[in-house]
Design brief:
The protein is mainly alpha-helical. It has a domain at about 10-50. About 100% of the residues lie in helices and about 0% in strands. The protein is built from one helix and no strands. The N and C termini lie far apart (about 205 Å). Pfam families: DUF948 (PF06103).
Length: about 150
């Protein structure tokens, strides 16, 4: 029985040795895997650092662009306000011109008859002037004819 006991202990020791060898191989493989993961994480950390720097630069540029857009928007608002003011001015000017046109139309309508009378009197005066000049010329011609007749005697 003692032999069985020694054999059992020897068998347990061999089994434990085999177990330790397999666990050792597994741990070495695990160590290699962990080293590979560590190297990969270092590479990822470097890449992440680069991405962080680029993101920071991009954020700064975005902030600068946003400020520029705000300034240009404010400038554009002043231009829009100025154009709106010009539109109001043109509208007021248009209204004033319409009022003046209406006033002139009303005055023309009211004074049509007067203008017509003035034109008629002007025509009469022009005709009288023409007749007076004709008489004057006729008198001159008659006077010249008389002088010529007197000279011819």
């Amino acid at each position: 029985m003692q032999i069985i006991l020694y054999l059992s202990v020897a068998l347990i020791a061999v089994a434990f040795l085999v177990l330790v060898i397999f666990i050792s191989k597994t741990l070495k493989t695990l160590q290699g895997t962990l080293d590979s993961v560590s190297d990969t994480l270092k590479g990822v950390e470097k890449q992440l650092d680069g991405v962080t720097r680029e993101t920071t630069l991009l954020l700064q540029k975005t902030n600068t662009l946003a400020e520029d857009l705000q300034q240009k928007s404010a400038n554009l608002n002043s231009v829009v306000d100025a154009v709106k003011g010009v539109g109001v001015t043109v509208s007021n000017f248009n209204g004033t011109l319409q009022n003046i046109t209406k006033t002139v139309d009303i005055q023309v309508e009211e004074s049509k008859e007067k203008v017509s009378q003035i034109i008629q009197w002007s025509n009469v005066i022009l005709e009288l002037k023409d007749k007076w000049q004709e008489r004057k010329e006729a008198k001159k011609e008659a006077s010249l004819q008389v002088k010529q007749k007197v000279r011819s005697y």
